[in-house]
Design goal:
heterodimer, A: 231 residues, 5-stranded antiparallel sheet, 8 helices, B: 124 residues, 0% strand
């Protein structure tokens, strides 16, 4: 029993390391090769867990090897576009200028139902609204609506607003995140002074965010919300 | 950074594979030599020498098995384990079965050696 427990812990660490080595991707945005590797890794990891007669090395070696091959090939595909195309394919345009390209749909084995489902997933319920649609190499569909059917932006409405970066978390679970503070140009003393004005200590803060304009948002350990400007 | 780590891991696996393959080949060759010496001693009537060699082979196998079990599946080792442990007993009690056991043992060690050596047939 203890042997299985230790093996489980070792394999858990190995799989986490392997997934981290592969890098950050959302499951739905994996390239075909990455998806295959992810599924393979999960299947291979179960073999030494189920059967204690199988040496750990027999489980760890294929897991790490597959992931390393994936990293090496994906690094090479950055340098060699033809390799990238051979492995991942290329995006296919299925709607251009509002017209559906049925030949490409046939090539992709994309039925009408598949097309409509993909459009509805992008909140498009009327084909008339679609100017351009592409099937990406990950299998997802990207849609561009016609100008008249798209949501107007501030620019369309002539509203000027300065672009700013999103707020950053500067206190998390009672601990100051030094890197975020330095990126925002806020000193720790200023932060503590601001919290003091709100009758709070750093340890009593569950979550605090601030943006480049100095606006903050605080949720204390009891869930009370406070807003204001860093002074 | 990821690329360097991946290349290092692959390289270390290749090196480990080469080292383990050579180590297993060397140990198997030594055990095959010992097995043939047991057979020669037993055939020439030198039972005492055959018995000593059998005991030596058993200890050698135990030491090899402990290290090999890290990289070789248990099922490949367990059958050889069983035969080696019986040889000394058969030399003493059932001499009629010794030669057959030695032939079987030789076959299993050669199988172990060939299965851990990368060749086209093994890979496929």
């Amino acid at each position: 029993m203890s042997i299985i427990l230790i093996r489980s812990a070792v394999l858990y660490i190995m799989v986490i390391f392997a997934v981290r080595l592969m890098g950050k991707r959302q499951l739905g945005e994996l390239q075909p090769s990455e998806l295959v590797i992810t599924i393979l890794v999960s299947n291979i990891a179960t073999l030494p867990l189920e059967d204690a007669d199988i040496p750990l090395a027999v489980g760890i070696t294929p897991i790490l090897s597959l992931v390393c091959f994936e990293v090496i090939v994906s690094s090479l595909s950055l340098v060699f576009p033809k390799l990238r195309k051979a492995i991942s394919g290329s995006p296919k345009v299925i709607v251009s200028d509002g017209k559906i390209d049925t030949a490409v749909l046939k090539e992709l084995r994309f039925s009408v139902d598949d097309l409509m489902t993909a459009l509805r997933n992008k909140d498009v319920f009327d084909l008339n609204e679609v100017q351009f649609a592409v099937v990406e190499t990950t299998g997802t569909v990207s849609v561009m609506k016609k100008s008249g059917d798209d949501i107007p932006t501030r620019k369309d409405m002539g509203i000027n607003r300065k672009s700013s970066n999103p707020p950053q978390v500067i206190v998390s679970d009672g601990s100051i995140i030094v890197q975020s503070l330095s990126e925002l140009g806020i000193s720790a003393e200023k932060l503590k002074k601001t919290l003091k004005k709100q009758s709070l200590e750093v340890s009593g803060v569950f979550l605090m965010t601030a943006d480049s304009d100095g606006n903050f948002f605080i949720a204390d350990s009891e869930g009370n919300i406070k807003r204001g400007a860093v002074q | 950074m990821r690329l360097k780590i991946s290349l290092s891991i692959i390289l270390s696996f290749v090196l480990a594979g080469i080292i383990s393959c050579r180590w297993i080949n060397k140990k198997c060759d030594e055990m095959l030599l010992c097995t043939s010496q047991i057979g020669e001693s037993f055939s020439s009537g030198n039972t005492e020498n055959a018995l000593q060699l059998a005991e030596y082979l058993e200890k050698y196998w135990d030491s090899f098995r402990k290290k090999a079990s890290v990289m070789v599946k248990n099922e490949r080792l367990s059958e050889t384990d069983r035969i080696i442990s019986q040889i000394a007993g058969k030399i003493e009690n059932t001499p009629d079965e010794v030669n057959l056991s030695l032939i079987e043992l030789t076959h299993l060690i050669e199988l172990l050696k060939s299965s851990e050596t990368p060749s086209l047939v093994n890979v496929l």
